[in-house]
Write a structure and sequence with these properties.
By secondary structure, the chain is mainly α. It has three domains: 5-68, Orthogonal Bundle (Arc Repressor Mutant, subunit A), CATH 1.10.10.10; 89-146, Arc Repressor Mutant, subunit A (Orthogonal Bundle); 153-296, GntR ligand-binding domain-like (Four Helix Bundle (Hemerythrin (Met), subunit A), Up-down Bundle), CATH 1.20.120. The protein is built from twelve helices and six strands.
Length: 317
């Protein structure tokens, strides 16, 4: 039986950790440990470990779990469609409908239960997840409102403007920690991508590597507020990017710039690294803006929702 997308991506991330040295030869893995790390149940976690065991990446030992083997095979297939790990499938169905103007901006929980065939608990869960990252909010009384966060070129530009202020500033903090061990780990991950990972890793792993670089780089500032804001910005823009088709060629430039910033910080030249960071973010937005604009124009041609009856008149159950 073919493995699910979730299992495939858990396996791909574990494989990457082995390839980058984060998981050393002989490292022990258990289904519970993997489930906790990826915030999933034990079932897909164990399936991912069994899959890697069948590929001779891990060795399964009775009553002891799984252990990293020396021989590591490359992923057999490239996945250019991004299928994220972090959220349940129904969350992305809701995201997709909102991005494409397939649902109104104000809904009730009962409307979502009926539309997606979900339980009350599932609906509350996905709405709370959307609210946590800033694209949904509860209305006074009852009902929910969806927000135009990272849905248009204008809102995406606002996110990148904030990041262009925050991330360079974080590099200039006097408390910035020049932790060479962490910097070298980030550098190795980016170099491994340049050395072949860009062409072999699944698309969502490439995206997550980029996000991890920016969050960990800023975290070294010593000011937790910088890190908190960048994490929030990344969560908001994931609303657009989680199901994008990856332009792998763009990652060569991106990774090279990441490595150059690390080298500048290693040399103590945080000012130059901050300048490069600002240019880097501007270039990233310039690449994504036309894609989002095209999507926005396409969505505008879809059938209007103005004829739908008011969903706020529904009674919740």
């Amino acid at each position: 039986m073919a493995s699910s997308a979730l299992v495939q991506r858990i396996a791909a991330e574990i494989l990457q950790k082995i390839q980058t040295g984060e998981l050393a030869l002989g490292a022990h893995l258990s289904a519970q440990k993997v489930a906790d790390e990826f915030s999933v149940s034990r079932s897909p976690a164990r399936e991912a470990l069994v899959l890697l065991s069948e590929q001779k990446v891990l060795e399964q030992r009775p009553n002891r779990g799984f252990f990293v083997l020396e021989s590591v095979q490359e992923p057999a297939q490239i996945h250019d469609e991004v299928l994220a790990l972090e959220e349940p499938a129904e969350y992305y169905r809701l995201s997709e409908d909102w991005l494409n103007n397939a649902i109104p901006s104000e809904v009730t929980e009962q409307f979502l239960r009926t539309r997606y065939d979900l339980t009350k608990a599932q609906v509350i869960d996905i709405l709370n997840r959307a609210g946590k990252v800033g694209w949904a909010e509860p209305k006074p009384g009852y009902g929910w409102r969806f927000l135009d966060v990272a849905k248009t070129p204008e809102t995406l530009e606002q996110i990148y403007k904030v990041r262009s202020l925050i991330e360079p500033a974080a590099l200039l903090e006097p408390t910035y920690l020049h932790d060479l061990t962490k910097l070298q780990r980030l550098k190795k991950e980016q170099q491994d991508m340049l050395n072949g990972g860009i062409e072999t890793l699944p698309a969502d792993v490439l995206l997550k590597n980029g996000i991890r670089f920016h969050e960990e780089f800023v975290k070294l500032s010593g000011n937790p507020l910088y890190h908190m804001i960048v994490v929030q910005m990344n969560n908001m823009r994931r609303l657009i990017e989680y199901r994008s088709m990856i332009d792998r060629k763009r990652f060569y430039k991106q990774c090279a710039e990441h490595i150059r910033m690390i080298e500048l910080v290693e040399q103590g030249n945080n000012l130059e690294a901050a300048h490069l960071m600002k240019q880097h973010l501007s270039g990233s937005f310039a690449h994504k803006s036309p894609i989002l604009k095209l999507r926005s124009e396409t969505a505008e041609t879809s059938p209007s929702l103005s004829g739908l009856p008011s969903l706020l008149e529904e009674s919740t159950r």
